[in-house]
What we know:
This protein has 18 helices and 15 strands. It is of the alpha/beta class.
Amino acid sequence: MSxxxxxxxxxxDIPKQWYNIVxxxxxxxxxPLGPDGKPIKPEMLSKVFPMxxxxxxxxxxxxxxxxxxxxxxxxxxxxxxxxxxxxxEKYLDTPARIYYKDESFSPPGSxxxxxxxxxxxxxxEFGIKKLTTETGAGQWGSALAFSCKLLGLGCxxxxxxxxxxxxxxxxxxMQIWDANCIPSPSNETKVGREVLEKTxxxxxxxxxxxxxxxxxxxxxxxxxxxxxLGSVLNHVLLHQTIIGLEAKKQLKIAGESNPDIVIxxxxxxxxxxGLSFPFLYDKINGQEMTIIPTEPTACPTMTRAPYSxxxxxxxxxxxxxxxxxLGHSFVPPPIHAGGLRYHGMAPLVSQxxxxxxxxxxxxxxxxxxxxxLLWARTEGYICAPETSHAIACVIDEAKKAKEEGKExxxxxxYSGHGLMDLAGYEKFLSNELVxxxxxxxxxxxxxxxxxxxxxxxxx
Length: 459
Ligand SMILES: Cc1ncc(COP(=O)(O)O)c(C=O)c1O
């Protein structure tokens, strides 16, 4: 086993195909439904997404080639390093070996450009000139702004108001990459105006911002605008699997076989799936492994919400997706992990939970900040508040390995740096942050928005 604290791959060793887990799942997720309650036909999505991405969304192929032009852009920062958290291991005095895939290495600072570049490229191939999107923490918006700039597309970002106010520096990044970033809800769409009329002081939500971005894309009569989503959908998770495929090669170089435990934080599920799905393949094929998606107690989609059909946006414009959901009317409390405040969970991740392949866990905000601080004071890096939800779980598992006296290998996705999120750290350091577990009353209220929607009848 290697003593190195960072394991690199050569550029020529970058994976040349993405891994699609769909054909390998023991049970297929139920199909998305249209407004008539029947499975949608791919063409019905064509005003929202280009056909080449819709083909990926419904693909049953296990391997999908990554176009050379996309690789050319990814080489700017990929393959990303696999690092060993030796200093944290030492501090915890644990027999566990902790590895992490450093996705903070990309120019915008997270895993998000892995799919942003791919989506911008496929849209450009299809003749699209402009993309609209939403963003929570600003990581996704800045990743799409960066990708659109490199590929010569226009970019409009609806940023959830609370994050727009909490994270002005992310807005600056989007402007540097030439995107138009505005707070959501806004006066620029019908959906936004309606929300503002009813609740002028709303902090906004990803569901509302998605609704605004879709409305703008589908109402462009030139047909040259499409919408781009940063998580949840199959093709987005597909593009992120480059993370896990690289990690597999790097673990081998480090002299490890597969990890015992794989961990990733979940907003819509893309960084978690990107790291874990290539390993989930091995688990489905009989290898023992614990795979843990984590989330905040303030937004407990995987640990407290029902599995149901629901819309992806607050206005009910998207197809109905089968997923764990807090209800599309859910307006999350303003915790600092802005990227983990989405009401639903990717249908593929949801299916894995339903089938008992994934073991979700929820964590309190204060414990996550304590873990982020310990991380910064041992490993040295300042992580994104979202990423701290993986680190807190890693620390729990490393302590458990010590109690059990077992040499476990833990792998997690270091989904982003927190250098644009220092306001949250400042609040934590001055004791202004409190835990917030979603009250049962609030959960019941937001679940009213899925009453009457169809229930998936898969296994
Ligand atoms: C750093 C970081 N990690 C994780 C997430 C969660 O998103 P996803 O579940 O799609 O990976 C986000 C979302 O914005 C993020 O910015």
